[in-house]
Amino acid sequence: MFGECHAHIFLNGRNYKEAVALHKNHVSEEAIRQAFAEYRKRGITFVRDGGDALHVSEYASKIAPQYGIDYRSPMFAIHRKGHYGRIVGCAWEDLEEYRDLVKKVKDLGGDFIKIMISGIMVYEQFGQMSEEPLAPEEIRELIHIAHEEGMAVMAHVNGADAVRAAALAGADSIEHGNYIDRDCIDAMKEKGTVWVPTLVTTGNLLGCGRYPQEELEKIFDSARANVSCAWEKGVLLAAGSDAGAYRVLHGQGLVDEYQIFCDLFGETEELKNRLKEGESVIRRKFQAEKFGRELSGKQYEKYIVLHKGDFSYNKGNSNIYPQGCIYRLNNRTEAAVPNVFESFRVSVGNPDYYEQLFLSGFLNRQLYSKINRGVRDNGLLNLKGKDFYSCEVPYPPLAEQERIAEILIQCDHVIELKEQKLDELKQLKKEFLRKMFPAKGCDTPEIRFPGFTGAWEQRKLGDVCEIKDSALAKVNSLHKSRECMRSLDQHQ
After folding, report:
1. pTM exceeding the 0.85 threshold for the entire prediction
2. What is the pLDDT of residues 242-255, one digit of tens each?
3. Residue 36 to residue 49: CA distance in whole angstroms
4. 395, 428, 452 - which closes a domain
5. Is residue 123 part of a domain?
6. What does the alpha-carbon distance between residue 110 and residue 130 come to, in Å, rounded to a whole number?
7. Would you call 194 helix, strand, or coil by DSSP?
8. Domain count for the chain
9. Order of strands across the sheet with 4-7?
10. 273 in a domain, yes or no?
């Protein structure tokens, strides 16, 4: 499966106000874990977040490795004061304030800079935006400052003029990019900009009833036409759903986004390769240098470099992992984790065996007895390194370790294949649901069984169902009947 190149881990895909309220006073770890579980369920191991103003993505970056997810985040987006973006980040009034915010992102361990250049679409009217975008000269300065600090730029931007200015100024990715023209597409091609169109944000609104259907169809058709043009021109494209937006669920949103691409270009190897190419550029560019030749500086003091196969014990307490969680770096060659984690490499015995042992929760009882439950250090369990490493682990003969690891890893592979098959069946049913019922304006479905022809009869819903009275209605009816009977008795 592809990586999710545009998500908002703090949103839930259902209700924006509800999501904000959930995290406002205290970040909900449970909500973050539920989102990551949905990604893992679908085999999605790369998530690029768009940031938020509630420290949710900052918290999520600590949890993501437990799910084997390569999580990239700007921590928070940056917007001009008084303009769209308060929900996702911090505001600046002058370029000096903006530069300070860029440095703050670096100090927090952010992987890139996200800037808000324009507002959002007004779904009630095709072509209308919520506000005017920033001026081209401002856009150039914002991108230039971020690049000076060694950070890639993720640009939230809509409208032809703003998208063209952002691409020409060197924005590393264009997010959304609605209402663009051929000049914008040419600029993205010229500069090697990756475009993440997030088509599903409109596609999943079709038929929802919240916005005028005719206007939604215009917006959706326009977006698909522009993506088709970009495809023909060879623009770098990547799959990102804006997961967390209304009706765009974490995990499933990317599946829906990919389906729209398939509807446009067919589910071909060319499509897969094109999307993987765009994603690979994002993976390469949108990554802070938390490891490498120059692991130094204030922003790196809080990190430890892990290499593929290394383990790390996250002392963060949660309902799912009350004694913390031990995870293993399997999906990347290198990664940086907070230095408050206990990080190690198995040097004696089979590492695969110990990975399975840790997954079983074997150490939980010992950890429980060693943890001072009454004391926490910045949200972490109060467990010293010497106490962690004093935990006893079973050490069978090496050959037996290998056999145990082999059978359990095989089980993991079978589970993964079954989950993939389940996802495929869900997608198949989704296609059947779309094709086995008539589309708008049609009286026959796209798919029919042999032997069935002719138009489908149309009936009112009330003609095919028996309407049930509520319990209250029945009680009231009973009362009325009794009153009527008493009245008759009195009359007689």
Report:
1. no
2. 999 999 999 999 99
3. 12
4. 395
5. yes
6. 28
7. strand
8. 2
9. 4-7, 46-49, 70-72
10. yes
